[in-house]
Every structure is written in structure tokens, then in C-alpha cells.
Amino acid sequence: MKKTNFAIAIAALLPIAASAQSATDAYRLSGQDGRGTARFMAMGGAFTALGGDLSTLNQNPAGIGVYRGSEIGFTIDINMMNNKSSQIGQPLSMNKTHADVNNFGYVGTFNIDSEIMKTISWGVSYGRSKSFERQYSGYGMGLNSSLSNYIALMTDGIDPYRMMFYDNQSQLPAGLNLSTPYNPYQNSDINWLSILGFSSGVINPVVEVSADNQGNPVSYLTDMYNGLFQHPQQGLQGDPSQGTGEFTVRERGYVDEYSINIGGNLSNMIYWGLGLGITDLNYEQETYYSESIQSANVPAGSSPIDGIREGNCDWELNNARKTTGTGVNLKLGLIFKPINEFRLGFAVHTPTWYNLTTSYYGNILYGDEYGTQLNESTDDAYYDWKMKSPWKLMFGAAGVIGGRAIISADYEYDAYGNMTTSDSYGDLDYVNQDIKDYFKAANTIRLGAEFRVTPQFSVRAGYAYTSTNVKAEAADGAIEVVTAGTNPAYTLDNDVNSISFGLGYRFSGFYADAAFVHRNTSSKYHAFSNFKDYNGEWISSPTAKVDFNSNQLVFTVGYKF
To answer: How many angstroms separate the CA atoms of 166 and 184, rounded?
Structure first.
């Protein structure tokens, strides 16, 4: 197949995804799960105006000013997850249970003999703000095209000889000026996914034939590429391709925050707090994506110069990725209590400034009906980068009814569209623009209630809703979503809903709380981005809906003195 100049122009519009980080990486690593003590989670996390709980050290630091004494506490969380893929040929449900230490901390309070400054409190706490643990799979996704065609399109214009390996100068083709030994992964700026696809035979350069001086036919490689999937509009001989895809995604890791807070009580009316958060991030991802294609454009031989032929093939792309790092943020909060029965709360969180290190590698296994078997892997990649997470703004109100009941409500604004990335050379402007194109602010509403049945025993309930932070254009596939490295897949989340209830018991300074939290969100898995093919038509990638449901049992024990 020979591609037109129009096709070259279309391909030139595609972003070159040679960067080591992307907007989807920043998206994946940001966000929080709303974890904390059992009381905090039972009441939906609506504590911006309440305070007096160890969780508020990570939410509204002014909550520490509400303390009249000291406290130490410890929380564990048992999370039972069910992840189900649907809207594909073969839906699949997967279950996983894991336990976390949600929170532990200490608050110390000093009474001051002053009419204005009643108390000064300080506190330290550990909190697991996010768990990355999840696994999901899907089978039988119908193919409108192939990931190989997407790779071919982004590779057009690259000399195929620059994606080959050379040990010495004698191996270099005439006219190719490269230093040897030459490794395209290390000695070029070519997208690693292009090199991997070329080396494994899932993309093949278009071969053209011309005549030499004696009129003999001579074959030569162009810098245009064929993917495996043959579209009807391409006008090739044989049947259009058809096939199915399948995927598995495994994620694990966490974001932990260590908080150091100080706050105080002004005239039993204004409570203030300042907090320093130090975060520890560890994220690991393993992905598998495969395609089985009939009537494909398979390699005609073991050399790229052999061209293509029609046949059936199976191939898979495996990726492993790990990101670790640390970050720091600041928090400022106020709680205003004009009367004993009513409180207003306010808190602002700066972005968390992260220093991160990412490593990854990719592998492709290819096989077809003619016996061609290829197994190719990239080099190991390591790079350092920086990320600024969303800043946050919170407002809350809480009321006490009859001295026995509490009702609270929170609003939170998270500025996901303002995330930024950079490296040692400066801001990554193209990644930061993608962040603005793909993501928007998320809005969270939290509601909580508590009723003291007896002086020792309480019952609680809560609800929380967070709107999606993904723009409709990215969620619906109306724009291309660029990823980094050798994994073109991404998953975008929709709204999140959670309901909760719990129990609490107090006795002689000791307390024990329990909570049950059900959280649900649906997401959309994309094997790769939608893209415009050579006829200018928008090609849809294989997708699947994934429902994430979790049931958490949370237990807290502590002592107030």
C-alpha cells in the first residue's frame, strides 16, 4: 500500500509521544480516597467545620484547635473490592481484599492562662490518603482498527534504518550517518513504542520498487508504515481485517502523608491551624493488551524489505511501570463558632510539590500462521521529573441539635486542570497543555450526621459525592489522548459516590469506633486513543466500561486524656 502526501500531512499533526511522562500520569498519581478514622469515614468525611478528630490534621488543620485535651489513636481499614468490566464480548468480574493502616496520630494540648488564647495544640499523624490497589480485565473487545495502526501512524516519517541496531560502521546502509555502536532506544529521540513495534514486526515499512540504470527492479524501504489491520477503504486485495482484543491492568501502591500541625483556640470562638504535609508516593502498574486479527497485514518474511502479505496473527503488548517519590504541601484552616450550636469551617491546601522517579519497559510477542515468532523488549528506562498536584479549597458548616445530634456538610474544590509537570530543563509545556485539555476541576459534597444514643454510645451516617475531573472531550474520545512510554492505554474515571454508617463507644477516655463504607465509580478503559486514519476519518479504539465497587470495614481505637 502506498500512502499519499495527504496521509503524511495528517500524520504530522499527531503529537510525538516520545516524552517520558504525560498528562495521564499526573492524573493517575493525583487525588485522594477520603480515608481517615472510623468516625471521620462513617460521617462521610464532613469534618471541615467540626474538627476534634485525628483525620482533620490531613483535612482542615484548624480542627486541632478544637481539642481541649490530648489524644492518641490508631485506625485499620479492610477493603473488599469488586471490579467488573462490561460493554464488551466477554465481561469479567474480579475480586480483591487488602488491608491498610489508614491513620494513626497524636495531639497534645496545652492550656494557656489567657482570655484570648485559650489553648495551643500540636499534632503529628500518619494517613494513607490514596491506595492504588486494583485489578481489572476484559475479553472479546471488537476491533475497528489495531493498536499497530496507531503506532504506524505516529511512526510515519521516520527512516526505518534509524530504528535498527548497528554494532559497527560496516553495518550502516550507505548514506546513513550514525555513530556506532548504535542503539535506537539510547541514541535517538524516536518514540520507544515505534522502535518496539518496528522490531517486533507489528508495523512494517512500505516497500516500493523502482528500476536501476539497467532497468532491473530494485526494492527499497520508505518512511511510511503499515499496521496489521487492513481497512476496507484502503483498496487492498483480500478481505478487510477483523479481530478481538483483551486486556488486564494490575495496579498497586499508595500515597502516604505525614502531617505536622499546630493550632489554637481564640476566645472559644475562632480556631486556627497550620499544617505541613510530607508525602511518600509509590505506584506500580503492569498492563497486558493483546489482539487476535484475521486477514491482517503480516510480515512477508524475516526482513522489513520483504514487505507484507495477508494472514492471521496474534500479538500482545506487555508493560511494567513504577513511580516513586516524595512531596511536600502546606495547609491553612479556620473554624468560626459564633454560638455553641453552629460552626463554619474553611481550609486551603497548596499543591503537593513532588520529586518523582519513573522506570518502565515494554515487550511485544508476535506470531502468525506462517510460523513467524518474534519476542522483542525495550531497554529499561529511568527518568526524574517533578509534578505539582491540584490545590484544594474547602468550606464546611456544622450544627449541634439538642446537645445530642450533629449534622455537618462540606464542599471541596480540587483544581485538576492546574496540575503541572516539569523536569530538570524546565516546564513540560506540551504535557501541561494536555492537562488543561483533558482535565477540569472536581467538586465534592460531603454530608455527615451523628446521634448520641447514650453518653457512651453513638450512631453515625454519611454520604459523599465527587464529580468527574475528566473533560467530556477526553472521556468521549473526541480528542486524541497522548500517553508516555510504551503503554498507550489509559483509564478515565467518572463520578464517585459513597455511603457510610458507623458506631462509636466511649468509656473513661478510651474509645472504639467502627464504620462501613460503600464506594462506587465507573470508568472507561481505552486500549489506545481514538485517532484519525489516512482517509481523515476518526477511528475508535477498543474500550470497556469498568465498575469499581469497594466495601470498607474501618476500625479505630484511641485514648483521650
So the answer is: 9
Angle, in degrees to the nearest 10, between helices 147-155 and 192-199? 120
- Residue 528, amino acid: F
Q: How do residues 338-369 score in pLDDT, each as one tens digit? A: 999 999 999 999 999 999 999 999 999 999 99
Three-state SS letters, 407-473? EEEEEEEECHHHCEEEECCEECHHHHHHHHHHECCEEEEEEEEEEECCCCEEEEEEEEEECCCECHH
Closest C-alpha among 301, 258, 319, 309 to residue 484: 319
Contacts of 149 (CB under 8 A, 6+ apart): 227, 228, 229, 533, 539
The answer to whether the peptide bond before residue 181 is cis (omega within 30 degrees of 0) is yes
Q: What is the dihedral of CA 167, 169, 173, 179, to 10 degrees?
A: 80
C-alpha 128/C-alpha 130 separation (Å) is 6
pLDDT value at residue 238: 62
Cell of 40: 471521620
Output the CA–CA distances (angstroms, integers) from residue 293 to 198, 241, 488, in the order listed.
Answer: 18, 7, 19
Question: Which residues are paired to 409 by β-bridges?
Answer: 397, 447
d(CA 366, CA 380): 20
Sign of CA dihedral 155, 156, 159, 161: positive
Tell me the per-residue pLDDT of 397-442, one tens digit each, with 9 for 90 and over: 999 999 899 999 999 999 999 999 999 999 999 999 999 999 999 9
Question: Nine-digit cell at 117?
Answer: 488564647
Residues 46, 446: contact at Cβ < 8 Å? yes
pLDDT beneath 70: ranges in the chain? 1-19, 232-238
Q: 3-state class of 154 per DSSP?
A: helix
C-alpha cell at 129: 490518603
538 burial class (0-12, 13-18, 19+ CB within 10 angstroms)?
A: exposed
Cα dihedral: 321, 322, 327, 332 (round 10): 60
Q: Which residues pair with 314 in a beta bridge?
A: 292, 367
Which pLDDT does position 89 carry in this prediction?
83
Claim: this prediction has a pTM higher than 0.85: yes
Give tens-digit pLDDT for 93-131. Answer: 999 899 999 899 999 999 987 889 999 999 999 999 999
Please state the separation of Cα 546 from the chain's center in Å: 14
Q: What is the DSSP letter of 380?
A: P
Q: What burial letters (b/e) apply to 455-489, b meaning 16+ CB within 10 Å?
A: eeebebbbbbebebbbbeebbebeebbbbbbbbbb
Q: Is 134:251 a contact under the CB 8 Å cutoff? A: yes
C-alpha cell of residue 456: 457512651
